[in-house]
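tool_call: predict_structure(chain=1)
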Amino acid sequence: MIGRNDLCWCGSGKKWKKCHFPNPGQEQNIDTLPFEKRAALYRKQYGIILKTPAQIEGIRRSGHLAAKILDEVCKRAQIGVTTEELNTYAHKLHLDAGAIPAPLGYGEPPFPKSICTSINEVICHGIPDSVPLREGDIMNIDITCILNGYYGDCSRMVHLGNPNPERCLVSKVSYECLMKAIEILKPGVPLGAIGTAIHAHAKTAGCSVVTQFVGHGVGVGFHEAPQIPHYRNSIATPLTSGMTFTIEPMINAGTPTAVIDKENGWTARSADGRASAQWEHTLLITETGYEILTPWTL
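tool_result:
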């Protein structure tokens, strides 16, 4: 619920009672508005697309497929296997399911592979290659499917053999940050609470949060509004049912700064070369809480 003295949901910085407060003497949950009115309001104020039941079902199917492909690719990730082999396998799984790998050809320069494989100090957007995986590596595998026009986006970590304590720590903390952020999701929670929860846990664990990359709306497009910062912030936009977005905290052992590979224009590494890790789900805000639309397994 939004109180009269809380910041208005529109982001004006004013108290609700001085801005969009509709009924003096009362409080209103935005989710009580009819869907059509809420959808128009969120599109106009924030550029956010609230999803219809039919769209949600399409995104759910794509998300479940992405999670299934991710689980299968992670099983193939073994010492001595190359990330190029994982990419080839993932591409086949997409095609066999009648789906399209969203990363392939995306962006500028066009991303050259069907999945992202980010190893050790690589924060995100690692490009599969012919180098075999080694004992002690940690790796994030990121899968985004397009199924019948809908997007599902997720990632998780894989440990090869026995990684050193630093690598294990960032992987553990990143997972915990993701789950702590998910736990608070429900209508009326300000969007900024997601990053605040992640930042607090990472700091307590002695890790840092990458600020150069964020989560994002997803579903009918690969990258939609809103952006979801993983660091402490005060974004007041209230979560509401029908929102679909990713949470994907990128956690570093040392400096939070990322350096982009100048040759390929994609691969982001920690500036100090220390370990980084990321876990990701696509989430739906429901009338009472949330639904994980990419239910990969550990």
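agent: The chain has five helices and 15 strands. Proceeding to next step.
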